[in-house]
Amino acid sequence: MAESATPQEFDVLILGGGSAGYSAALRAVQLGFSVGLIEKAKLGGTCLHTGCIPTKAYLHSAELAENAREGAKYGINSTLESIDIAKVRDYKDGVVAGKFKGLTGLLKMKKVTTIEGNGRLVAPDTIDVDGVAYKGKNIVLATGSTSKTMGIEIGGRVMTSTEALNMDTLPKSAIVLGGGVIGVEFASVWNSFGVDVTIIEGLPSLVPNEDPAIIKNLERAFKKRGIKFNTGTFFEKVEQNDSSAKVTLADGKEFEADLVLVAVGRGPVTEGLGFEEQGVKLDRGFVIPNERLHTGVGNVYAIGDIVPGVQLAHRGYQHGIFVAEEIAGLNPVVVEDINIPKVTFCEPEIMSVGYSEPKAAEKFGKDAIETVEYNLAGNGKSSILGTSGIIKMVRLKDGPIVGVHGIGGRIGEQIGESQLIVNWEAYPEDLAPLIHAHPTQNESLGEAALALAGKPLHG
What is the biggest distance separating any 2 CA atoms in the chain, rounded to whole angstroms? Predict the structure, then answer.
């Protein structure tokens, strides 16, 4: 640590050690730069400690609970005795600890200088960390996001996903405020664990950013699972007492449960970090860089969740790699947000990449697109797994596939080929001759492409 009056200087100085920040650090080192990485909490950020990794660990436990409960259907006479939520939490903590150890070891091995403490931008080339100045020829802002609370006081029976991941008892009932990705994932977990769950979503449907066909399938599946939801009316207030928590909607309707999970999205962490004082443009807390992620100030870049758009760890990785290559003059390719793959890990899973049907119609014109839906009822592996759902593809007439969407058990695993299809601008006719192994859920992508090419096999 530099204690002298001369600040320690790096080629690339990064504020924030989450997915975006640490990937920028790793790529920058690879490109021969000296790198300083400032993090006030734990390297790995939200994704590793309170986001993607821990929630997916809980979702795996939830899947095992469902499997045990439904074993008899498949000739396996298993029963679900009980859920030990403290042990589920311990298992989750073990996964996180292992990944955290691996990440810190990797950064050390790659010779990234990690600097612990609270960083603040004090000049276009200087970050102050708890009173010690560090200079960067290039500065990368990657301070991430935090749970939005819409003015609701968090504590007691009212919590965000962070607190929900550390409970050692399960509630009998829960209200999930917000029917987006985080909301439906938690609702799915708790329902599998035997909790009576109600989702409140102000917009007209659950997962409102998805294609209408996917939304319809999810809502149907959730109803079947006994997950209740109220859509189309925003909440007005959240109250709690010693015995319960209550949500009142704008139309006066009231819902009561043991606890309320506030899952109304995530906001950028930029306040009080000196960004605006240095001329970095903010809008509602988000940094507004150009399409090449430059802030317009000195050599200052912004990446990850503080940049408006989809808040996903893998977008953060892509941003981090992009900025390191941009600094190196490699002129990397911009990947538009619309073409970033997305998976929602509730049961049934949702995957999507590219344009939904309404977005494609808006962008290219209703008459310029064609769509096809392939029902997983025709897919052998999906029947074996006992899941239903669809694959939906959107193409330009006589043109490439611009959107792939799916819903069904384990369907998230099909996002890999889906994102190649969209990002490589494949035509259905290009895909039709490609062989998809049988019996796999992957075949459903091939079947949808065959149907879109005008020669369906099993549809």
Answer: 73
